[in-house]
Amino acid sequence: MSSPSTGDGYRLMRDASASIRLNAQHYLWKQICGFNIHPQIPLPKEKELKVADIGVGTAIWMADVKLEYPALKVDGFDKSLQQCPPDELLPEGCSSRTLDILADLPEDVKGLYDIVNVTLLQGGLEDTPVPALRNMLAMLKPGGYLQWQEVNLSALSVTSKKPGLEQSAMKAVLEAVQRFNIGKWTPRLADICAETGFLDCKTDRYPVSPDIAIAFAQTQLGAYEEISRGGMDNGSQDAEGPRLRETIAKAHAELRTGVWLKQELEVTVARKQG
Questions:
Q1: What is the residue-wise DSSP string for 156-205?
Q2: Contact (CB, 8 A) for 94 and 71
Q3: pLDDT at 86 over 90
Q4: Fewest C-beta in 10 Å: which of 33, 62, 223, 256?
Q5: Rounded to whole angstroms, how far apart are CA atoms 271 and 261?
């Protein structure tokens, strides 16, 4: 089954519930990984750095990273700014603008950034991240860094500490999601970065511990429900979208019994030559 999508290729929703999910997901992600910017990326305090946030969404990463590093100048980019606050409500030194990372880049963003941050872009790409990577490479200054954060959907599994718990709905949801064919390239992202011209390419993996796994899985199930509403067949109760939402509701009930998704978050860091 191919992945459903909206008119501009985005597979999720951009309504208030989706924004709430994105904001919660950001803080859970940070708690799991322990950072907004990977410690491998140098952040000299005496130097004002420019950062591009690709797929800015609600601008929550931008706002949070500015609290940690007030000297950063952060530009957020997305195909749609429907979820992003207006610039006058963003932190000082931050801005937002529309940009399709798969299209030809405007000249004014080429070679401009010390860091390019990307989080969960796999749902907006097809079979390969290479066209996006080429544009990200072009946006970086010589010696600049890419940080790309993803979930390897093909490695998800269902587990529990207590034996004998019902897991059939959660497993059915995962089977449906994997049929969307999203991000099959994710486990090879560091290698693909190297093939695209980046240096020092490395992927670190951060396991989601049981104490936070249910909260994180709730945000994931919310995203899968958005996919079911935004791009799947919803023409009748027997259509694919309503059937998946019914299964997701049962999966939420299984979460409450102690079933969770065993998984790792993947953060790939790479450097532009120079």
A1: -EEEESSTT---HHHHHHHHHHHHT---TTGGGHHHHHHHHT-EEEEEEE
A2: no
A3: yes
A4: 256
A5: 32
What is the residue type of 174?
A: L
Residue 189 backbone dihedrals phi, psi, to 5 degrees? -60, -40
How far, in Å, CA of 173 to CA of 217, rounded?
12
Q: What is the sign, positive or negative, of the torsion defined by CA atoms of 37, 131, 136, 121?
A: negative
Neighbours of 211 (CB within 10 A): 9
**Sign (positive or negative) of CA dihedral 248, 252, 258, 260:** positive
105-153 confidence digits (pLDDT tens): 999 999 999 999 999 999 888 789 999 999 999 999 999 999 999 999 8
Place of tokens 């796994």: 213
pLDDT one-digit tens code per residue, 10-22:
878 899 999 999 9
Q: What is the pLDDT of residues 176-230, one digit of tens each?
A: 988 887 889 999 999 999 999 999 999 999 999 999 999 999 999 999 999 888 7
User: Would you give the DSSP letter of residue 12?
Assistant: S
